[in-house]
Write a structure and sequence with these properties.
The chain has 241 residues and is an alpha/beta fold. The chain contains 8 helices and 9 strands. The strands form 3 sheets. It has a 5-stranded parallel β-sheet with strand order 2-1-6-5-7, sandwiched between helices. α2 packs parallel to α4 and α3 packs across α5. The longest helix has 19 residues. The structure holds 1~{H}-indol-6-ylboronic acid.
Length: 241
């Protein structure tokens, strides 16, 4: 496969959606290999315990290092990049999705409770690249949903996974602006008409209109993205928006 993915979790069924739809077909076609492992297969006790009380006190439980260490010893190999979703992680971005799409083997460690004993990450980092990654400024109950997001954003960049190949430059966020509105038939729907310009056939005008819409939307919803635009990417038309 172009990319091998292993996921370690106490809720393997949470990753079933990876086998549906487009990604499912890419797996069937051998473009991507996805293996999901139940962390409890590496527990040592009759209770199959994966968590314990936190040193220093505080609420909740922490996931045991021994269990994670044994699991990652079996699942990771020389080509692995280990990805650990956590609210305390580096923000996951489209650039990181491209970097992950270029990897050979990704292993995702899904935390639950208050997270995984930090020594698991420290120990792994002695042998392989490790990324602690956040998919956004909100807190989930576990890393599994974050893995679904990261895998989808990464796999769609692989050649052959999507029907129409994703041209990176057409991808939203690639010109640094948000995508503007899209329309299809009928021309009028619930007394709402499609903007005239889109039916004009004047493609220079249409491109200009679309860029204006993208700019206006970005100014309104994500003004901070404008600071990150490469120098000179806004022309005098844009600045008039
Ligand atoms: O919001 B998150 O990205 C996230 C990731 C992992 C865990 C583990 C316990 N809560 C979590 C939240």
């Amino acid at each position: 496969p172009l990319l091998r993915i292993d996921v370690v979790t106490i809720f393997p069924e949470y990753l079933d959606p990876l086998r549906a739809a487009l990604l499912g077909r890419a797996i069937e076609r051998g473009l991507i290999e996805v293996n999901v492992h139940d962390l409890r297969d590496w527990t040592h006790d009759v209770h199959r315990a994966v968590d314990d009380a936190p040193y220093g006190g505080g609420p909740g439980m922490v996931m045991k290092p021994q269990v994670w260490g044994d699991a990652l010893d079996d699942v990771c190999d020389e080509a692995t990049r280990l990805v650990v979703p956590t609210p305390a992680g580096r923000p996951f971005t489209q650039d990181m999705a491209h970097a992950y799409a270029a990897e050979e083997h990704l292993v995702f460690a899904c935390g639950r409770y208050e997270g995984i004993d930090q020594r698991v990450i420290e120990d792994a980092a002695r042998r392989m690249p490790v990324d602690e990654v956040s998919i956004g400024d909100y807190v989930l109950v576990g890393g599994e949903a974050a893995v679904l997001v990261i895998v989808e954003a990464t796999a769609r960049l692989l050649p052959g996974v999507l029907g129409n190949p994703v041209s990176a430059e057409q991808d939203s966020f690639s010109d640094g602006l948000l995508e503007g509105p899209s329309y299809t038939r009928p021309e009028v729907w619930r007394d709402l008409a499609v903007p005239e310009v889109l039916r004009s056939g004047n493609h220079a005008l249409i491109d200009r209109w679309r860029r204006d819409q993208a700019l206006q939307r970005t100014v309104r919803r994500r003004p901070e993205l404008l600071d990150r635009l490469p120098e000179g990417s806004l022309d005098h038309h844009d600045l008039a928006v």
